[in-house]
Design brief:
Elements: H1 15-19, E1 55-56, H2 70-77, E2 78-79, H3 107-117, E3 127-130, H4 136-139, E4 161-166, H5 170-180, E5 185-186, E6 192-194, E7 207-210, H6 213-218, E8 229-230, H7 232-248, E9 251-259, E10 267-273, H8 276-285, H9 291-295, E11 302-307, E12 324-328, E13 333-337, H10 343-359, E14 363-371, E15 377-383, H11 388-392, E16 398-401, E17 404-408, E18 411-414, E19 418-422, H12 432-437, E20 443-445, E21 448-450, E22 456-457, E23 468-472, E24 484-485, E25 488-495, E26 505-508, H13 510-519, E27 521-524, H14 532-542, E28 559-562, H15 575-589, E29 592-597, E30 600-601, E31 609-610, H16 613-625, E32 633-635, E33 642-644, H17 657-660, H18 664-682, H19 695-702
Parallel strand pairs: 1-15, 2-21, 3-4, 4-9, 6-20, 7-8, 7-12, 10-11, 11-13, 15-25, 25-29
Antiparallel strand pairs: 5-6, 9-10, 12-13, 14-15, 14-16, 14-17, 17-18, 18-24, 19-23, 20-23, 21-22, 26-29, 27-28, 30-31, 32-33
The structure holds adenosine-5'-triphosphate, oxaloacetate ion, calcium ion (CA) and manganese (II) ion.
Manganese (II) ion (MN) binds next to loops.
């Protein structure tokens, strides 16, 4: 065990230095990353075709279980065991005596971390030291060097040590979590169950982006934009709050990792956080460097300060709650206050990629991606819960990634090194690969398990409906490492249409693909009524004064969501910029667009039923194999969608939605209602030109519903 102490002279940037940080000439660029020798170059398949898919994301924060206090939240997590459970209190886990080690990166890493944590307002930052504070007893014996002599106006914080737990292994992070973070448990399959706290989904209303001279003109601001402005000064206030909080702790976790498997466009990220849960989550979700890469990591391109356990100050300008997720592109930094939901880090970095990649003529996509044995690549776009992860994880195909990709001149690359699967109602039969990925190393968020056997009940939404599993991509047996592939042949737009009027599958022309990509439609409903037993169980748990009789069953209406580019929450530029790039790439590669409804059939939510996953998989198979391209088609009224007369393994009655509805009048009314919602939503885009000549704009407008 090494008890090295390093005293570091910390460079304190002045405001003048800061002004010059990355933003002087109005150009934002990250240093060119060194190529990863180990990675083969992306090969381009000439003349390959691709289709568009869509992915819809939405805010999960509303779907919160019934808890008012931390203790209530904790009591939800562990279910009472079956009566055979031994009644043993406090039979906790015995911790190993040795603290975590830091295998690589010595003094230069510590210097770099110290610089990251340096205070911007005081004379100095913390002294950093590697390893767990439990080994600090020995540290105290190390003689002080002259550099540690306090200056006259030194503050207490500059006298203390902050222990740095740098790139710990999953096993070490498990131990840290179980020992110090309430609500951390090992499940029966070896996953780490954690609680994300009061927030169980992202908080898009609390997202802020620094508006400076550069970003004012470059980014999309105003109505419909996810970028809510803040000024540099308020960012610095929040940054200092986060850094001071982190420095006040005995220890911080630091992850140094990569984004983007394309060796020419990879980004180095550093995540400083207070929780082992956050460190393990990012270990799984970002690309993990090899020990050699870590040794030569150098200065990160982007840094996250996750002080989510600590709130922001509402007296700070631009703050409207105690939660704030702040992105400063000029400083290449992100600050998180007041939410511990780990998805903020994942999706915050995705936003940064949506800014950086288009500058390099690379399209960033909220999509899943997989590849067949013959090298045919498919993209799956869609908002949250529409099936990106479920359908890109396919036993017969190579998984390139489940959520975030780049499409460059050379092909596609995954931005991440892991997957983030929804696990509500997860079943071994329907989603075997995801089921099997929930093992040692996987972070399981907000699930409920048996207090004795530690078996997870995936149907239980007592904490939240947004239960999640975060695992390294190699936990999926047929993942493609490195996660890159040739140009897409099929672009599949997924919509979970709870109105039940969109066909299970339709073939799109380029203008229609663009229309639906820009619209980014889905309609979800609460999964509450998916099973009657579950409903009763949940309501028993939720029964309190706010529970009104009659709200219990079937009254939930489907709600349409339109999210431009199937990811409006993450885009930085105007949606038409991404759409133009997609159109150009699809055209150049001859990719085919498809619209797949993974939602309701035979009626809206309440009367119809969700299309069986097995049928959707057959549809997707037929797209991949090319057989669907050769089917015979007919055009639907209003939306003008080309629907096939036959798909192998799918009952033909459901292919034309009207046939599946008993009440044809209700069908027509619902169809018109949805068409109206599409039209209203698209109005904001009618004044925007797409592409050079704007000719495509006319075609795209004409590709919407006609009534
Ligand atoms: N016909 C169907 N097609 C796809 N998914 C279905 C279908 N029927 C039910 N499901 C369920 O819908 C959910 C789809 O969620 P999934 O995790 O794939 O969403 P996602 O698009 O990856 O969202 P996010 O961006 O939030 O990660 C899964 O729980 C899946 O089991
Ligand atoms: O970010 C999240 O919490 C979940 C997600 O993948 C999405 O919403 O697209
Ligand atoms: Ca997903
Ligand atoms: Mn997503």
């Amino acid at each position: 065990m090494c008890n090295l102490i390093v005293y570091i002279d910390i460079f304190i940037p002045t405001l003048a230095d800061m002004a010059g940080n990355g933003n002087t000439d109005g150009e934002f660029s990250f240093s060119a990353a060194a190529a990863r020798d180990a990675l083969p170059r992306i090969t381009t398949e000439k003349g390959a075709k691709s289709t568009t898919s869509s992915d819809v994301c939405h805010d999960d924060t509303a779907s919160r279980g019934n808890f008012q206090t931390i203790d209530q939240l904790h009591s939800l997590q562990k279910k009472r065991s079956a009566p055979t459970t031994p009644l043993k209190e406090g039979g906790g886990v015995v911790m190993g005596t040795s603290g975590p080690t830091t295998p690589v990166s010595g003094e230069s890493m510590l210097q770099s971390v110290s610089a990251s944590l340096a205070s911007l307002t005081r004379e100095t930052g913390p002294k950093v030291i590697r390893g767990d504070p439990t080994s600090a007893a020995k540290v105290a014996h190390v003689p002080q060097t002259p550099t540690s002599v306090p200056a006259a106006d030194v503050s207490d914080s500059s006298l203390k040590f902050t222990h740095v737990l740098h790139n710990l292994s999953p096993a070490e992070l498990y131990e840290q979590a179980i020992k110090y973070e309430k609500g951390s448990f090992v499940t029966s399959t070896g996953a780490l169950a954690t609680l994300s706290g009061a927030k169980t989904g992202r908080s898009p209303k609390d997202k802020r982006v620094v508006k400076d001279e550069t970003t004012a003109s470059e980014l999309w601001w105003g109505k419909g934009s996810p970028n809510i402005e803040m000024d540099e000064q308020s960012f610095l206030v929040n940054r200092e709050r986060a850094v001071d909080y982190l420095n006040s702790l005995d220890k911080v976790f630091v992850n140094d990792q990569y984004l983007n498997w394309d060796p020419e466009n990879k980004i180095k990220v550093r995540i400083v956080s207070a929780r082992a849960y956050h460190s393990l989550f990012m270990h799984n979700m970002c690309i993990r460097p090899t020990p050699e890469e870590l040794e030569n990591f150098g200065t990160p391109d982007f840094t996250i300060y996750n002080a989510g356990k600590f709130p922001c100050n509402r007296f700070t300008h631009y703050m409207t709650s105690s939660t704030s997720v702040d992105i400063n592109l000029g400083r290449r930094e992100m600050v998180i206050l007041g939410t511990q939901y780990a998805g903020e880090m994942k999706k915050g970095l995705f936003g940064v990629m949506h800014y950086l990649m288009p500058k390099r003529k690379i399209l960033s996509l909220h999509s899943g991606c997989n590849m067949g044995k013959d090298g045919d690549v498919a993209l799956f776009f869609g908002l949250s819960g529409t099936g990106k992860t479920t359908l890109s994880t396919d036993h017969n195909r190579y998984l390139i990634g489940d959520d975030e990709h780049c499409w460059s001149e050379s092909g596609v690359s995954n931005i991440e090194g892991g997957c983030y699967a929804k696990c509500i109602d997860l079943s071994r039969e329907k989603e075997p690969d995801i089921w099997n990925a929930i093992k040692f190393g996987t972070v399981l968020e907000n699930v409920v398990f048996d207090e004795h056997t530690r078996e997870v009940d995936y149907t239980d939404k007592s904490v939240t409906e947004n239960t999640r599993a975060a695992y390294p991509i190699e936990y999926i047996p047929n993942s493609k490492i490195p996660c890159v592939g040739p140009h897409p042949k099929n672009v599949i737009l997924l919509a979970c249409d709870a109105f039940g009027v969109l066909p299970p599958v339709s073939k799109l022309d380029l203008a229609q693909t663009m229309y639906h990509f820009i619209s980014g439609y889905t309609a979800l409903v609460s999964l509450l009524s998916s099973s009657k037993t579950q409903l009763n169980k949940t309501f028993r748990l939720m029964r309190n004064e706010s529970m009104v009789a009659g709200t219990e069953e079937g009254v939930k209406e489907p709600r349409a969501t339109f999210s431009a580019c199937f990811g409006a929450a993450f885009i930085m530029l105007h949606p038409t910029k991404y759409a133009a790039m997609l159109a150009e790439k699809m055209q150049a590669q001859g990719a085919t667009g498809w619209l797949v409804n993974t939602g309701w059939s035979g009626g809206s939510y309440g009367s119809g039923s969700r299309i069986k996953l097995a049928y959707t998989r057959k549809i997707i198979d037929a797209i991949h194999s090319g057989s669907l391209l050769n089917a015979t088609y007919q055009k639907t009224e209003i939306f003008g969608l080309e629907i096939p007369n036959e798909v192998e393994g799918v009952p033909s009655e459901i292919l034309e939605p009207m046939n599946a509805w008993e009440d044809k009048v209700a069908y027509k009314d619902t169809l018109l209602k949805l068409a109206g919602l599409f039209r209203n939503n698209f109005e904001t885009f009618t004044s925007h030109k797409i592409g050079e000549d704007g000719k495509l704009t006319e075609e795209i407008l004409a590709a919407g519903p006609n009534f």
